[in-house]
Amino acid sequence: MSQMIWKKRKPQYSASVMEEAVDMVKSKAMYLNRAAREFDIPKTTLFDKAITLK
Which residues, by range, are in coiled-coil regions (predicted)? Predict the structure, then answer.
């Protein structure tokens, strides 16, 4: 049986977009789920940046 090789994908968002989304979540101007959808960022990534890495 052959092994599958997974390639890491580059994020499709820029650092400035991530920073803006994190600021919106931290200031409570937008919920995390909505910010993830609006800025097209994975919810888990946004959660890690906004909540756990205060």
Answer: none
